């Protein structure tokens, strides 16, 4: 396989802005002369359902779908969704997941019937995921997005965190340019801030477990 | 990727969705008239054309249905302009009556029809394979596998269309339409829009009897010439590696094939077909001639496989052919790289490159107890409230609910489980007519506004004319919500915001002869129940219109006007856990606090439709203030 390939399985709940992320990454690739393709979901599933985007970077990549066991990383904008697609993660792959859980209506409906039932939370998800990889970073993206100035930038916070990965082949300045081009003018500032804050957050939660780019702490060995 | 990229002059590069690349191909081909009705996975073609329509001089309509859209393009192409329509393949079912005739009469200006299948039925009622439309109507068909190819094929299709005077199909599948990639932008060389004089003798586009027989003779000749041209077309790709194993594939199947050969580390010969009707029989024959075995990789039905098998009879009778008929691949669901890799490994007797089964088994163990998250009504969706009110109004009334196609289709899914029949757009009324003859229960039909205009009108005419005992509930949320809130004939604007004449549902229905029309606001959920109940107890045909804008649409308009979107919260002092806001309501913004088991509302998700507040018997749900 050619070097510098990178496949990330991005997932979340309809309405969380996954398509913006794949557009930003893809446009950043176009700006830097790299090849990128995606397999996206539009249509019915966007109605508060589970959604996913297969994002693939590399000159020989042809399939818009990542094969099972083929994702270098899972980027989950919602915690339960990280678990839903775990079969796509390659052995030793990285999971960058939002700590936020959006409780599915089916689960809530069952809790009305069963008083002892408790929601599945991010900790349970993490414990389960630990059985397939030890590289899991949990990010409080909503908290950070609020600090950046807009709760809706949760997705860009997550992108910021992932972009620190050494394996993520797209240059920072291209990603920042693509954010500028891809979001409404009046939201550029807050999105760039969210992106930076996501990167800073990765210091403590991601770069201590996997190799990050120069300028970020070396991984513990 | 933004719409500006699609409009930007070339040369250059942009990352775009295949559907955007299709629009770009049409713009580079100087398309002049566009008409479409939305449907996944082609909707973004309509949306992109609509968004760009103020920047270019093409005429555009969001049509009332696919048949009208196709006919609109046909009319303009008869005069000599280049046109485009796009639809999902079930939309082609609607348009097909004129489509077949149009192949006979032909056209003058280039006409391209994008037809998309949806393997896996991601957003469709069936996994229909639209490819038979090509051969059945003798209309040439091209199949791209990625955005770059799609843009190129659109341009080729216009040339082909004008050369042979025939509309050309671009057939795609979901994973092609919804694939983004980096696309090369060429120069936009557009001529100013101008009407043309009608250049044809009388009867030129009339087909019946002797005229049809003459057209048929001519179209067979046309089809022979196109096939000959396709034998040498570089839209078909032959990669002969010298291997005796060959793979015949097209579209998305090609993408997975390449990935699978990388996974397996094999280098078979590959024939990728871009012209899938008429098929280049000689090319296929030459490819399979020296092969020991051929594997056919295609989405849905064994269309290529059938033809490869027929061609092999003369070209290579000893050839072993593997595909769907041999059970190596399935006709159900969509393909994927791992499915194709497993199939190739099986045929070639290779060990498993990756043990997919145990990865999936392990994953399933880890997912024990993980709750499903199927698509459902958005927070604030008026349909949730309408369904709640309808259930209250029909309490104790045995009834059958014939529902239709739209966001409200989701009512039959978990956890709402309400709805008995669902076939195709407009079918609620026709099915209801049959139900009221055969069933003892009360018959309720349910349809959205866009679907009513699309295909509900003939069913309405029929029900009125025959005095069928049906109560029709129209869920008027002002737009075609399911596909992204496009305006429908009820709005005072159309594509690109251009002004349009709004049609008023109750005026139209009244004029058709039904005066028993009840209009309710689903957000006034309790107040809606009694009038609904009264209407349901009267003999049909009568109509209930439940009117309230789609929440996503209303939010977009609010944001545009700079209005804040408010949210509610639960006053826990007051909440006594009746769960009225959850049972039969199921809003994604409402969950239960694990600590005190009281309802909580997620601020970021709530839309403040206030319906849950109206349902709560203790008045515990209130406006969230100062947070
Ligand atoms: C023939 C056909 N064309 C298009 C579609 C795609 N489609 C599914 S739902 C829908 C729109 C429904 O609009 P409406 O009836 O107003 O219901 P809403 O989604 O607004 O609730 C469309 C166009 C389809 N399924 N079948």
- CATH topology (level 3) name of the largest domain in chain B: Rossmann fold
Named CATH architecture of chain A: 3-Layer(aba) Sandwich
Which band does the percent of strand residues of chain B land in? 15-25%
Tell me about the largest β-sheet of chain B. 7 strands, mixed
Number of strands of chain A: 6
CATH classification class of the largest domain in chain B: Alpha Beta
The chain-level structural class of chain B is alpha/beta
CATH superfamily of the largest domain in chain B: Thiamin diphosphate (ThDP)-binding fold, Pyr/PP domains
Number of helices of chain B: 21
Task: State the CATH architecture of the largest domain in chain B.
Answer: 3-Layer(aba) Sandwich
Given as residue ranges, the uncertain stretches of chain B (5+ residues, pLDDT < 50) are none
General form of chain A: globular
Written overview of the protein:
The complex is a heterodimer of chains A (221) and B (627). Chain A has 221 residues and is an alpha/beta fold. Chain A has one domain: Pyruvate-ferredoxin Oxidoreductase, domain 3 (3-Layer(aba) Sandwich), CATH 3.40.920. Chain A contains eight helices and six strands. In chain A, α2 (79-84) links the parallel β4 (71-76) and β5 (89-98). Chain A starts with 5 loop residues before the first strand and ends in a 16-residue tail after the last helix. The mean pLDDT of chain A is 93. Chain B folds into four domains: 3-189 and 203-230, Thiamin diphosphate (ThDP)-binding fold, Pyr/PP domains (Rossmann fold, 3-Layer(aba) Sandwich), CATH 3.40.50.970; 237-363, Rossmann fold; 382-558, Rossmann fold; 566-623, 2-Layer Sandwich (Alpha-Beta Plaits), CATH 3.30.70.20. In chain B, strands 3-2-4-5-7-6-12 form a seven-stranded mixed sheet, sandwiched between helices. Chain B has a five-stranded mixed sheet with strand order 9-11-10-13-14, with helices on both faces. In chain B, α2 packs parallel to α7, α11 packs across α12 (303-315) and α16 runs parallel beside α17. The model of chain B has no long low-confidence stretch (mean pLDDT 97). At the A-B interface, α1, β2, α2 and α3 of A face β1, β8, α10, α13 and α14 of B. Bound molecules: thiamine diphosphate (TPP). Thiamine diphosphate binds at residues 37-39, 66, 88, 90-91, 94, 405-408, 425, 448-451, 475, 477, 479-483, 550 of chain B.
